[in-house]
Amino acid sequence: MLIFNKKSDLSAFLSPLIKQNKSIGFVPTMGALHQGHLSLLKNSLSENDVTVMSIFVNPTQFNNAEDLDKYPRTLERDVQIMQDLSNNIIVYAPEVADIYEGNTISESFNYDGLENQMEGKHRPGHFDGVGTIVKRLFEIVQPNKAYFGEKDFQQLQIVKKLVSKYNIPVDVIGCPIHREANGLAMSSRNERLSETAREKAAIIYQILNSAKEIFQTNSAEQTIKFVENEFKKLPEFELEYFEIADEATLLPVSEKEFDKKYRGFIAIFIENIRLIDNISLN
User: Fold this and answer.
1) Which of 37, 122, 126, 178 is an active site residue?
2) Residue 53 belongs to what H/E stretch?
3) Which residue numbers belong to the known binding site?
4) Ordered alpha helix ranges (H), 63-170
5) What does the alpha-carbon distance between residue 36 and residue 282 come to, in Å, rounded to a whole number?
6) Could you tell me the pTM of the whole model?
7) For residue range 144-172, what is the model confidence (pLDDT) as tens digits?
8) Residues 241, 161: contact at Cβ < 8 Å?
9) Helix/strand/coil (H, E, C) string of 70-100?
10) What is the pLDDT of residue 254?
11) CA-CA distance, 91 to 33, in Å (whole number)?
């Protein structure tokens, strides 16, 4: 398996492949791989001549220094997991200096308001950091297709907007959420949960499914109130937000319209670890 730590070396390797019109699939990650990541890799491997996965914990998208410090870093394990899947994966695992060249700050982006909702409200500057790293990685890898999981649905919409506004020639592909056996959305942050908390966190998806049923015959406001009340009964959880939004604009729903797609978004803490999830409500 080829592992590159420097963008210059990766670019030198990919350049002749690009000239040969080989299709390049790209899976950007922050490591601590799980089955959700592997599903993205499998899609890329089946649809492209070449697959690149980046493993880089991007400092500019963290607005909480403690969260950045504690984010799991398991490169050796990640490489072994990828080798077990396929030897045809190219890994780009840079240091911060290789990406930011001594100037670790975000660019500023306007995503036409997508950045002002949900995660944007609760994590100031987060999507500037996301845009900065994704744009730079796209410039380095020059992929034809890039694969993102729908667990970070807002991020997926923002990357699509970034590509559109900057005319970046890459097809951004959203892939379904992968869940643990108990329904908990797979996330690298799950590794930080105790076994007990990991089991209790199954209730998040259960409540989201109940909210989906309630939304069919009730208003967004009534559905949100239901979710808030359910978590009030569970003192081990701290609900940061549950919002119902239009999938396209991410704007909160006031009145339902039959021709629009809606999604419920949640952010919640257990054991001081922040988990996010979402569910289609149509």
Assistant:
1) 37
2) strand 50-55
3) 30-37, 61, 149-152, 155, 186-189
4) 65-70, 75-85, 96-100, 119-122, 126-141, 153-165
5) 23
6) 0.96
7) 999 999 999 999 999 999 999 999 999 99
8) no
9) HCCCCHHHHHHHHHHHCCCEEEECCCHHHHH
10) 84
11) 13
